[in-house]
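Take a protein:
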Amino acid sequence: MHLGDHEDENLRRILSASVAALTRMCGDYDIDDDEEFKELVFERSRYVYNDSLEYFNDNFLSQINNLGLAKALEEEDADAAV
């Protein structure tokens, strides 16, 4: 991806959309605290930037599923503790 004044807004939009999409798929993660979520955001953004988004889900399905499952188990543990 190219960085420069003319690309900044486009990259912000792509990154924001990637965070939102992955949050819907995997659960609510803090991008600053979870490296795996952050990596997926960057990878999805790279696919969007290169007009290849249709390949992202298939190529990263195991990572997406792992994050979603981890979040579900985390929420289940939190509910059980209450």
Remarks:
- DSSP finds four helices and no strands in the chain.
- The two ends are 45 Å apart (CA to CA).
